[in-house]
Design brief:
Layout: E1 11-16, H1 20-23, H2 28-47, E2 52-57, H3 59-62, H4 67-72, E3 79-82, H5 91-99, E4 104-110, H6 112-125, E5 129-138, H7 143-153, E6 157-159, H8 161-169, H9 172-182
Helix pairs in contact: 6-7
Length: 192
């Protein structure tokens, strides 16, 4: 592998279970910043023509993804009803990711130690390179760090919203084109 960075032309963004029932498990002060970074990364992906695959766990029982997520998605984006913990274990979700033709999956969402970790491991098993965004994933308490450790040990790249943004951009020309499209949506706590 010559290029260890994630490439916008090879990436797909998976937005996993950003639903109120899971967000409510986090410390109150962590919820809005996490949601802000996830929504911003969706907007960045769209501006860079990176496919976005969105899902919610048992939508009938747990509700749809949060309003901010739904507003950031393209109007024609299907939101999959995820019935398993690891998205690669569900035929339609795995097929949707693979149908993008992208070799790299970037994961955001909830919960780090369960659905994000199991999705990451399943996607590695399906032959993709995987990154999990440390500050755009979450679990309550020590479970977040445990999920990151498990993924790191399995070969998942752990990076940040800022880190993946600049990997996707790569150069000042692209930055100049993209910054006006996503700059206003940048969370206040994200320093670029």
């Amino acid at each position: 592998m010559d290029d260890l960075l994630f490439n916008r032309d090879q990436s797909v963004l998976a937005v996993i279970d950003v639903q109120d029932v899971f967000l409510a498990k986090l410390a109150p002060e962590a919820r809005a910043p996490l949601l802000g970074r996830i929504v911003w990364l969706i907007r960045v992906a769209r501006a860079l023509d990176i496919p976005v695959i969105a899902m919610g766990e048992d939508i009938a029982r747990n509700g749809p993804p949060m309003a901010g997520v739904m507003d950031a998605l393209a109007a024609d984006t299907a939101v999959f009803d995820k019935r398993v913990f690891g998205l690669a274990g569900q035929d339609d979700l795995r097929a949707a990711v693979l149908a993008t033709g992208r070799a790299q999956a970037v994961l955001v969402g909830l919960e780090t130690d369960v659905c994000v970790a199991q999705s990451a491991l399943g996607l590695i098993g399906a032959g993709l390179r995987v990154a999990a965004i440390r500050d755009a994933t979450g679990s309550p308490g020590a479970d977040h760090a445990a999920g990151l450790d498990r993924m790191r040990a399995a070969g998942v790249t752990i990076t940040t919203a800022k880190g993946i943004y600049y990997e996707w951009l790569r150069d000042l020309e692209t930055l100049a084109c993209i910054k006006p499209l996503v700059g206003a949506a940048k969370p206040d706590d994200l320093i670029l």
